[in-house]
Design brief:
alpha+beta; 9 strands; 9-stranded antiparallel beta sheet; elongated; 185 residues; Pnp Oxidase, Chain A; binds flavin mononucleotide
Length: 185
């Protein structure tokens, strides 16, 4: 049993963005779909975790459907699974979509030098049907002055931790105010 569970969880969350092999680097982000499309879940990369404010950060294309979904319904969930730890973490959070702040500008200054910049420069928005009709046609890129990077900020409201073990599974609910409740797994 981790000595101080919240501290251990944030230790792993803070490590994940900097460690390509950390399972928690790629959580599943679940949102509520628009127009009765039902729940929408997809893999994303965790870019930043801040233990003092209980917040997480993800980068995306500002035109991707998840941005519109989060603006319509900011309640979201991020689910992390670590095979190494045998831990699942379900993070409920309130999302804000940041299109044009100093934070976005600073992130773009770092990304624009890298190959990942292409992810935020496609002229055609993500999810559009390929104009060519081909599976992976080369997309036209916008100039780096017209990037589409947005930052999704998640203010964590509660975490549901599940630890699988042959000695017996354990589960707890944690909140930013320090609440920790043990749940039946
Ligand atoms: C390993 C992996 C990492 C991904 N990371 C991101 C990411 O950080 N941000 C993102 O917007 N999409 C990421 N994607 C793509 C999303 O899963 C998704 O396909 C895309 O963002 C479109 O989502 P939407 O149409 O629901 O907005 C990743 C996919 C994989 C497989």
């Amino acid at each position: 049993m981790p000595d101080h569970l919240p501290t251990r969880l944030w230790q792993e969350l803070k490590r994940a963005p900097h460690d390509r092999h950390h399972d928690w680097r790629t959580p599943i982000l679940a949102t509520q779909g628009i127009d009765q499309s039902g729940p929408q879940a997809r893999t994303v990369v965790l870019r930043h975790a801040d233990a003092s404010s209980w917040s997480l950060r993800i980068y995306t294309d500002a035109r991707s459907p998840k941005c519109a979904e989060l603006m319509a319904q900011p309640l979201a969930q991020l689910t992390f699974w670590s095979k190494r730890l045998n831990w699942q973490l379900r993070v409920s959070a309130l999302a804000t979509v940041d299109f044009d702040s100093e934070q976005v500008k600073a992130a773009w200054e770092r990304i624009r030098q890298s190959r990942a910049s292409a992810d935020y420069l496609s002229r055609v928005p993500p999810g559009y049907i390929q104009p060519s009709g081909e599976p992976a046609a080369e997309t036209t890129r916008d100039s780096p002055l017209r990037h589409h990077l947005a930052i999704l900020n998640f203010k964590v409201s509660s975490m549901d931790w599940l630890a699988l073990s042959q000695d017996g599974h354990r589960r707890a609910r944690l909140k930013p105010d320090g609440l920790l409740e043990w749940l039946v797994p």
